[in-house]
Amino acid sequence: MKFTLEVDMGGSGWDGDAARELGRILRYWGGNLQHYELKPGDGSALYDSGQREVGAWRITASSGARAQE
């Protein structure tokens, strides 16, 4: 399986506050993942502190050479 988390920081990277915003997103979702089975198809939208959708995380089935590692 593959876990992907993608965040669009916008053109300004939250006006120089990228570390704080990304840290908040990672802390929130790091703690919230326990509520998911973490199987292919699971995922959710990600929101910044202004409640704007800025990305998503998802679980997909692995493919290719890395799946064998």
Task: Produce a short descriptive summary.
By secondary structure, this protein is an alpha+beta fold. Helix content is 22%, strand content 28%.
Describe the protein's architecture and organization.
- The chain is α+β, with helices and mostly antiparallel strands and 69 residues long.
- It has one domain (2-68).
- It has 1 helix and 3 strands.
- It is elongated.
- The termini are close together.
What's the topology here?
Blueprint: E1 2-7, H1 18-32, E2 43-47, E3 53-60
Antiparallel strand pairs: 1-3, 2-3
Report, as a whole number of angstroms, the end-to-end distance. 11 Å
- Helical residue percent? 10-25%
Tally of separate domains: 1
Summed up, the helix count is 1
Order of helices and strands: EHEE
Give Rg in angstroms: 14 Å
Order the strands across the largest sheet as they lie in space: 1-3-2
The class by helix and strand makeup works out as: alpha+beta
| Major sheet size, sense and barrel closure | 3 strands, antiparallel
- What is the mean pLDDT? 89
Instruction: Tell me the strand percentage band.
Output: 25-35%
- How many strands in all? 3
Uncertain ranges: none
* Form type: elongated
List keywords for this structure.
69 residues, alpha+beta
